[in-house]
Specification:
Residues 1-24 form the signal peptide. Keywords: Signal. 74% of the residues lie in helices and 0% in strands. It is an all-alpha fold and 123 residues long. The chain has two domains: 1-30; 42-123, no CATH class. Helix 3 packs antiparallel against helix 5 (80-99), helix 3 crosses helix 6 (105-122) and helix 5 (80-99) packs antiparallel against helix 6. The longest helix has 25 residues, at 2-26.
Amino acid sequence: MLDGLKRSAIGGLCVLAFAGQVAAADLIDVPTASYCRLATTSDLALNENIGEVKTEVVRMMDEAVAAANSSQWLDSSRPVFVWASEAKVACGKAYGYLKTNYRDEDYLNKCECFHSRMVEYMN
């Protein structure tokens, strides 16, 4: 009985060690481009022309929706679907505020950031 427990414990440790190596290997493929400019304001939030901002937010939202619905990215090992999902929500909220002529800088920043991450992982 004790030998069986030892074998199970050793087998479990081997599986955990292998899983850790697989996860660590995924980090090698992380893009080298910088993350979003979280400490500064995005280009969207800096643009004073609300019409241009609305157009750009809708474009990013449409691209994010298309990527999130694409089987190419749903079945991919790249995190495009994750960033597309985040971008479509952030851009949707930013657009909702823009429709009332309110510029929510937090959602504008997130929209641009998440969209750029999505595009980065597509390439």
